[in-house]
Every structure is written in structure tokens, then in C-alpha cells.
Request: fold
Amino acid sequence: MYNFPKKALTKYSLVAKLFLMNEETLEYEKLMHILDEVLTKMELLHAPSRDFGTGIPIYRKEIHTLQAIGRHPKINITALAEYMGVTKGAVSQTVAKLIKKGMVRKQYAKGSKKEVILELTDLGWVGFHNHEKFHMDMLDIARECYGEQLNTKIEMFTNVMTDLNAILDKYVTRKKPM
Reply:
């Protein structure tokens, strides 16, 4: 790696900073590049929409909302928003779209005239089960790749992604958008 004279770098340009990257920074940039590739592929698997056997386009946010409702029967909007890590307004908009598509219904909780719970319709269950199958197919491929090491790998990936998520949370709280 070329070392620039410090006097020549009084105004750090992006190009100059790239030349000054150390091994740690280069490895971090490699990790970020790989993560970006993974995110791009994940988006392609869901984008722009899939019907998951329902005959109706379902977007990524919608299918994961169906998944959350299916996995948490009789969940309400507040608990769903908390589980998904979004605002009640955001989850309400997604639920409204799913109601319009005939995949979710709202009902009052038994014995309550205030609490509204969410349930999947038959069509919603079709999408839910096909999305679960989609995930199981991915898990089968991971099993093929890792064999008996699968659980160890999943634990390691979970730890890394949890750490990365925490780093991103810290970044968001420290930095203002550019």
C-alpha cells in the first residue's frame, strides 16, 4: 500500500482516505460489500412481489406481516408493531392492505368491546404456508451446505447479525442523515 506524505493530505479526499485504509478497515468494507450483496439477493427473492400461491401480489412487508400474524394468533396492532419493530401507524397501513386483499380480518377479542385482534383468512393462510415452505426450502439448502454444522453456523450468524444490528442502532442514534 502506498503511503502518502502527511503534508500532501491536509485536505482528506475520499480517494486519499481509501489509500490510507488499514487491514481492519479493508476487512470491514469487504464485510459490508458481502452484506449488501446478501440484502440485494434477499430483495430479489421477494421483489417486486410474489403471490405465494394466493393469485394476488404480496410484497415483502405484507408477507412478513402475514407471517407474524400466523405465528402469533389473535395478536393486536400494538403487539404486532412491537414484534415487527415498526410503528403502529406503519403496521396499520400494511394490515389495511392485507384486509383489502382478503388475507387478514379484524375481530374484537372475546369478552372485549375495545381490543381488536388480527386473524388470517383462508387466503391469508395459503400465503402464510407457502411463505413458510419458501423458508424451509432455504433451510434445506443451508442443511445441504453445512450438514451437522448447521446449528453452529446458525448460532454464529445470529450472533454476528445481532451485533451488526446493535452497531447500526448506535450509528443511527449518533449520526444525522447525510
Q: What stands out?
A: The domain at 50-174 is CATH 1.10.10.10 (Arc Repressor Mutant, subunit A). The first strand starts at residue 104 and ends at 108.
